Amino acid sequence: MWDRPDFLRLPERAVKPRSAGVTHVLDKGTSTVVLDGILASTADLADIVKIGWGIGYLDRSLKHRVATYQRAGLLVSLGGTLLEIAVAQGELAALLRWATANGIDAVEVSDGLGWMPEGRQRALVAELSADFVVLAEVGVKDAATPVAAEEWAEEMNADLAAGATWVVAEGRESGTVGLYDPDGAVRTGLVEELVGAVPADRVIFEAPTKAQQAWFVRRFGADVNLGNIAVDDILALETLRLGLRADTAVRP
């Protein structure tokens, strides 16, 4: 058993199962052999994993991948794009049967492709929350689409009311849309309006880059919910949360 050192004064950090300070991981197809090693040292630091895009649909080791994360105490979610494609092709029921058979316990409901008619995403949140933990993503993947904070906040609150456990603020794996300018800079006005209008502990901010993660930690502290974290960045993110890195260290 590992004895964690305790001689430094560090920020208080929620422990699992936690409702704040959630680390939401993006699995882009990490080898399950590598994954076993990473989770051996980071399982207590991560809470949710999204099997990105349509990777799960092609992954021969999907059941093993899901079981590996669940043994480590992580909630396993499908990516929203896969659900959007299934809905567009009229195959939602088949997708849900397949997800259940593979042990998936959460789904991301999004309209990042912009294909759903008005009201469809919210109806899906209400429908799917009866059988899955639902993460409802707000924002689209097209950088040219205008971002309106008031609309995002309204959508997030409506999704929470419909049954979503968390709402996810779009940033993509690139960190260049939605929450961010094309150069990756945080749209601070958007963030401030969101946290003023939506329960902060129910919002997961996608923050794939170190600079973005550090900004959120400096602004909101160790227990901010962050998403789209690479599997091999779980430990590095925790050092940012706890001020064990120059980007967030605070002089006594």
Question: Can you give a write-up of this model?
Answer:
This protein is an alpha/beta fold. It has one domain: TIM Barrel (Alpha-Beta Barrel). The chain has 10 helices and 8 strands. It has helices spanning about 30-40, 55-60, 60-70, 80-90, 90-100, 120-130, 150-160, 190-195, 210-220, 235-240, and strands spanning about 25, 50, 75-80, 105-110, 135-140, 165-170, 205, 225-230. The chain has an 8-stranded parallel barrel with strand order 1-2-3-4-5-6-7-8, surrounded by 4 helices. Helix 1 (about 30-40) packs parallel to helix 3 (about 60-70) and helix 7 (about 150-160) packs parallel to helix 8 (about 190-195). The longest helix is centred in the middle third of the chain and has 14 residues, at about 150-160. It is globular. It starts with about 20 loop residues before the first strand and ends in an 11-residue tail after the last helix. The model has no long low-confidence stretch (mean pLDDT about 95).
Keywords:
10 helices, globular, 252 residues, alpha/beta, TIM Barrel
Q: What's the structural blueprint in terms of helices and strands?
A:
Layout: E1 23-27, H1 32-42, E2 48-51, H2 55-58, H3 62-71, E3 75-78, H4 80-88, H5 92-101, E4 106-109, H6 120-128, E5 133-138, H7 149-162, E6 166-169, H8 188-197, E7 203-206, H9 210-220, E8 226-230, H10 234-241
Parallel strand pairs: 1-2, 1-8, 2-3, 3-4, 4-5, 5-6, 6-7, 7-8
Helix pairs in contact: 1-3, 7-8
